[in-house]
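Fold these two proteins, one after the other.
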Amino acid sequence: MSKALVIIKSMGIGDLCILISNIHAISKKIAQPVTVLAQKSTRAKEILKQDPHVKEVIELDKNEIKGFINIIKILKNKNFDQCYIYSDSIRFFLISKFSNIKKIFHYNFFTKKGKNFSKTAKKFTEKTLNVEIESQSKIFCNKKNIDEAKRKFNINTDSKNYIIAPSASGPTKRWDINNYIKLLEEINKSYSSKFFIAGGKNDEALIKNIIDSSIGKHCISLSKKSVEEIIPIIAACSYAICNDTGFAHIASGLGLKCLVLFMDSPPIAYGTYSKNISIVVPEGESIESCVHNTKGKDRILFKEVLEKSLKLIN
């Protein structure tokens, strides 16, 4: 019986979510659930907790992931016979070698820089497994947990239920919070709506701006909840409007119709992989031209965001 390890070097939630379809493809190919090694910052344990294609998640913090001997000790005891490394890292290749893993599949060394993240992963998986895969990822969530979230937060068809993620990994990736407030007010004029504001503890001040505004009575902050607690709430909703952030990719993986604002990151790599994501880029940019350092948050047109937000419902 094969025992496969999938190593994910990337540190973001969005990166992990994009790679889920590749993890599933490996599991299906060997007809066994796999073990995933990832950084804690990806929240892999929480996101993959109910995934039938994942047997175990080994999470390492930012210091542990830089280790060598300790990682080898962990992996040696697991007796993996094959390994898939979603990175061109020589270090992880050597870690796998010294962990007595016989079959090691990895990106070609010194080739990842500047490459399209999602397309590179898909091409690697397809070539390695000799199969064609869908790029759309799927996150599993127990129906019981979803129904519980619906009851607890009164999520029903009496209103349109949205996940809103106004934060991001940096200020250049965040649409102005006042634009979000105005947007939610306009949406609620057209459809009676309930907005769940997703973010972490570091985003509480940002979210408070929404909660304290005129639209606040229609909003619920999720900032004090873990990703594991937030997942069934997202799954209970139908729509998401987000900056390019981890919650956008979780929502996409859970099947929501998502509008994602790309202002300082490449939608060609982080948006086009998903059939559930509609994309907004700064005025004057295209899906191809918008990249890291575009810094176009002040060129995201409110009218376009509103029109596409309402279009999600249709």
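Now the second one:
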Amino acid sequence: MPKSPCHRFHIQGTRDRKRPQRLRMTIRIAFGGALFGLMMAWASELRAQDKNPFAGDANAAKVGESQFRANCAFCHGLGARGGGRGPDLTRAQKRHGNADADLFRTINEGVPGTAMPPNGATQQGVGMTEEEIWQVITYIRSVQNKSNAQATGNAAHGRELFYGSAACATCHMVQGKGGRLGPDLTRTGSARSMDYLVESVRNPSRRLAQGISEAMKEFSQEYVTATVVDLRGEKYLGVVLNEDNFTLQMMDTREQLHLFDKSKLQSLEETRQSLMPAYDQKMLPEKDLQDLLAFLLTSDSGAEGSK
């Protein structure tokens, strides 16, 4: 029996309504396939970043050393042994991860809240390529100590010295306890080499003269000693916090903040002579120094926060 025109119109209408649905389904499948492909490519890239293609390559390490000197040594020092801003990278234990993939991520993406910027090719740092980052990591591995240096002292006694007779806490803070005039030392033990720590105690002005700043902070403070005499003849001694052509903000040795108009001062002298005394053998015998270093090496473990 032949179909009526109305019936044929109904069938055609049904097909017409299904076409947009099929089109949407086709688009969804294509989009899903493309998204899956992107995810697989991203996962492949992540896997590629897990393994250093130059591991153990002496030539790559040599190239990486040049990259390091040009892009990293300003903060981490020549030889990667730490500088005013960056930690000692020759330590086997790294604060943000010890694996090659961790180092790649730290260099490429930076560490938010610290002075370490993202340094990948599309970032605001020095803009190293993936290959150059791996070469830098190869260099770091070539100079890395196989085990962390350990102080031979007694950390408990070192803590007593820090907050007691050595008077370190007068100016320095550990785990939120202590003074604010000098750098926070909570992370110093894990970020600095033993030689650096010893020299900072025995001859603090040498490090200050090199432009030491408080490490691991996004806006680190340079430590410059200031002596100010105002128009009344009152003298202030402390460290510079902020300065421009017209004003000076400083913290004095009593941790009092001052803001001065430079045009209204009798004198202003700034030096890189540390306010910290040089702890020689008489002031701090070698055994006590080792105890103090042992305390600093364990100061960022969290134990201090509960004491």
